[in-house]
């Protein structure tokens, strides 16, 4: 049938016109919709996407709904946060990992001040201070830390006992332990260099954090901005070279195929007792447990200096609570926040997900796998991972991987300086 | 593909082609004088409206953002050409461009040669032709990221264990972990997943060549090589042009397979332009990567124009 011929078909021209018009209207209407997390406008949108914790929070919301029949809450696990802020349609409250990306929202004043909430005073000062390592919004408590993840060297207690090894507290003791393990034909450290993030999280952050003042360094390079380079008083090439050289010493204590092994392989190997140590956080312990391992694992901070007093653990703000300035239902969101900040909610979470409490009266971690970190946590002997303070637009983890695979650290660090200065130049 | 100094190829095909084109042009002219039914415009309008709203408008806005320091939301200010200046100083971006161009070139050649050979095989009188065609097209239905994850496992676990079992030193470590070899893995996997679609276009082209032409050539004493070079290739040259242009465009945008296989690594050895642009969204480098995207857009257009002008008037779509 040719449409330009006289309308013989059952479809009249007027009908076609109407159909075309309807289609066009539908198309336009589809574009105009506001979609996203504000879909059910009568509910509080609670954003939380840490995969391991989704079920836990889902159950919690069930309890909350029973106690607060007047508030309806929707658990959002999938919306793109940046996009929701761009659309001026952010969630009403979120319980999320806090990092440099999240700090961008805070820095631009997108999060409301929570300083007047009674829960804000419950937080340990040194833990609340972790938020201020990132750029913030002057005079506001935009973020309340909900839980902290402590990370150190995971080790196999059975292997250490069988080989009569003590927990090392200095750099020399640590390399000695590795040598002894190698002599006994045991892989000292299991490497998963195929996943660059595991290198920056473990090897890099632990050595840098153990040797450098992470916060001071990043404060200074951020002040220098465009001027960071070979001639500035502080720079990546100047300050990070020594720790990185030390990090490279550890490379020989990894298994031969570390370059082509990934995060999951490391957990499997530790679960099967194939290696003595793994430089990973508590999230790996949870994975190993899920695989049904019976190995006796625990942890200790990586010693990178000759002084046991320098021992520190790596921490990050595993989850933090915040309420956007643009939230539709701030009051209900605050009520939910108060509910989440009760010990009945926080303590079981920390226990189940191997995290550390953030409040002044939080009970210490008792799980033997992470308990050794409690002492350092209580003494504020911790640092946040240096890799977390480098904007992700600089492919730093990939640079690190190159260094491990043989590139000259001096050249690569100069490249980081260059990228860092260039980023400051254009922002 | 444009060597037409031959004895067998009919020089009149070219002229016949142009007369046909001229005739078509006259046809369309006479048609345009008739009133066009507005229904046609209405049919086009929804698609055009959606395209404008979803593609053109954001692209123009993106271009405007390339002169700002926007991080994707919140306040921003105009910073002039700073993003563009910074781009040319950025070693990472420059090497991403070099890698992407090199990768696209190599892959286009590898894919087209192999796809053409397969198409030749699958259009000849072989047994189980239909079944074999189905088998060879299968990779097309699997999504790139899944293919990449499967091959990642093969390259990092299976291949090295085979290599060390056979005592082959060069195979016993993963090529994905080798900065100078990882690109080969990406070419192999990309080829594996894109050969079927290229091959289908070649099969479509090869079946348009009538048997008589080959018979005539055989009578004139042309052997298989000569028939391929002087009949088959000139007659499917149009399909070769299509496949190269489409292929090049696809490989310049390489993303899913690279992300799945190496994620730009080891180090930054296999970082593509599309990956840099995308990382800018998650890393809060929106304005800068918009500038990158615009430059990339220009380069893609230049390449397409060059490809078209080289092949213009020389392509033939079957006998």
Automatic annotation (TrEMBL), chain A:
Coiled-coil residues: none
- The reply on keyword Signal is yes
> InterPro entries recorded for this chain?
Bact_solute-bd_prot1, SBP, SBP_1_CS, TAT_signal
- Record carries keyword Signal: yes
Domain of life the protein comes from = Bacteria
What keyword terms does UniProt attach to this protein? Signal, Transport
State the Pfam families in the record: SBP_bac_1
Identify its protein family: Belongs to the bacterial solute-binding protein 1 family.
- Protein name in the entry: Extracellular solute-binding protein
Q: What organism, scientifically named, is this protein from?
A: Brachybacterium halotolerans
Automatic annotation (TrEMBL), chain B:
The record's comment on protein family reads: Belongs to the binding-protein-dependent transport system permease family.
The record's subcellular location field reads: Cell membrane
Return the Pfam families for the record: BPD_transp_1
From the UniProt entry, list the residue stretches annotated as the region Disordered: 1-30
Q: Where is the composition biased (Polar residues)?
A: 1-17
Official protein name in the record: Sugar ABC transporter permease
User: Where do the TM regions start and end?
Assistant: 39-65, 96-122, 134-155, 181-207, 228-248, 290-310
Keyword terms: Cell membrane, Membrane, Transmembrane, Transmembrane helix, Transport
> Which InterPro entries does the UniProt record give?
ABC_transporter_permease (IPR051393), MetI-like (IPR000515), MetI-like_sf (IPR035906)
Is Ligase set as a keyword in this record? Answer: no
The chain positions of domain ABC transmembrane type-1 read 97-307
SUPFAM superfamilies per UniProt: MetI-like
List, alphabetically, the Gene3D superfamilies matched. MetI-like
Q: What membrane topology does this protein have?
A: Multi-pass membrane protein
